[in-house]
Amino acid sequence: MHRYHDIGIPTSQPRPGERHIEHLKTFIVGHENSEYGVEWMRFEADAPIPELVRQVPHVAFEVSDLASELVGREILIAPNSPSDGVRVAFIVENGAPLSFLSSPTPTIRIGVKARPGVQIVQPTPRILRTLKRLRQPHPTSPDSSGLECMVDDY
User: Fold this and answer.
1) How big is the CA angle at 56 (ends 54 and 58), to the nearest 5 degrees?
2) Sequential DSSP letters for 53-116
């Protein structure tokens, strides 16, 4: 499964809201701040990032099995963890950088019942992240990490 996650665009200019990924010597204005997943990336001079990623925008896809996606591919950046629970690797595809990202299975699942003539579209990772942020467990509840959110037709 490949699901669009973001487009990473290299820049040399600092941007408002940057966060620093210290071990990668990279500054990011995250895709979560963009309706369409635009992510700005700025690199320190000695960042361990290949020139192709520093110069050419990349498209990132969320995948369910990062290791299997890398088999037989030209690996540009080996799997690494830019943040807790997230694994990322870059490959070269037709001369362009692509990024594969995997993270733990979301804890919120959505089921949709369709009415005749209604097309079903799977929720994007961004929608799932938003729902997860909006979920507020009751203070007296036990751990709610297995909470399911069902969206039915209305």
Assistant:
1) 100
2) HHHS-EEEEEES-HHHHHTTSEEEEEEEEEETTEEEEEEEETTEEEEEEE-PPPS-----PPPT
Sequence-distant (6+) residues with CB within 8 A of 127 are: 110
Domain shared by 113 and 61, yes or no: no
Name the token pair of 59.
């498209």
pLDDT in tens, 46-72: 999 999 999 999 999 999 899 999 999
The larger pLDDT score, comparing residue 117 to residue 89, is at: 89
H/E run at residue 130: helix 125-134
Tell me the residue range of the domain where 122 lies. 105-136+146-154
pTM: 0.66
